[in-house]
Amino acid sequence: MPNFRYRALTQNGEIVHGTLSAPSAREVAARIEYLKLLPIETIEEKKKAASGSFGLGMLNQPSSAEVTTFTRDLALLLKAGARLDDALELLAADADVGRLRPVVGKLRAALLSGENFADAVAAHPALFPAMYVALVRVGDVSGTLDQVLEAIGAERARSEQMRRKLTDAMQYPAVVLVAAGGVMLFFLLFVLPLAAAALIAAIWWLLRRPGARSAIVGAAARVPGLAGIFQFYRTTLFCRNLGVLLGSGVSLTGTLRILVDIMAVTGNAAGWSAAADRVRHGGKLSDALSADSSLPPMALRMLRLGEETGQLPVLAGRVAEFYEARLQRSLDRIVGIIGPLAIVTISTVVGGLIVSVMTALLSVTQLVG
Q1: In the chain, N or C terminus with fewer CB closer than 10 Å?
Q2: pLDDT bracket for residue 285 (50, 70, 90)
Q3: Measured between alpha carbons, how far is 349 from 345 in angstroms, rounded to an integer?
Q4: Are 69 and 36 within 8 A, CB to CB?
Q5: HSE toward the beta carbon, residue 55, CA cutoff 13 A
């Protein structure tokens, strides 16, 4: 079904515009008149020709930073007293929103057609995850959409800042590993091709064994240094989202229902589901979480204190800040070790290959001589 861009006049003399999907321009005009608007212009959007360039569609996708900018700017406009449809109209023409502008236009069109904002946002799951939609729905119902959007924007900005720090810290080790890996690959493919083929075949055979990848991830999570990092990340993710959801007015059972899907990416999905079931049947959150030791003892004690004092959202946020700082320090130490360790390891392997090749050449020379 084609999309049509339209401009129309309200009864107050304001010009509005948006996008509608309809079989024909006549149908678009009928829908606009049904909304008590006077159609000014209706233009069918032409479909873009498919391109053979790899990844071109991905380049046109809005980034996470653009979604965050949209969320924070929308919160500021609503706090300033703007109506939701007017705020969306302003943001649809804002260059800071970037590639998200067409999506903002669709959100406004859906709003003008009678949908609530939460349903309009839920129609774009690739950009707005389940937690985002749940919080927006709470803000719609409670009339605190500006506060909810401000909390979402602050949390997304904090997460993106942490990802940028990690990415910047990993750039140097990554370059070292790629360069050293290229040298090793050259020796394996051109100097010792039979050994390379045997090594690649062995690795491929191991990875194809049932449960091999899960076993590798599980083994990595049990390494003393990495186990702590996994636990810090898991605790930060859980407590941060717990504090945001509860602070926005979502019930504890509803919060856990959302968090089960979010925490499944960290493993032990069955354990998180079991904890949510215990709380749903009247158990305490701290007791339910302590059953499978998903969180460290200190975090459980703080959450138990929050339940007893009625300050669970506040204490959950403080626990998240504490373990986020510990996670950052641990990552800094790991990154500081990876670079030198990679250089030493790859240099040793490459040096061993060179010695092996030179020894073989000397043996051949002595035999010929």
Answers
A1: C
A2: confident
A3: 6
A4: no
A5: 1
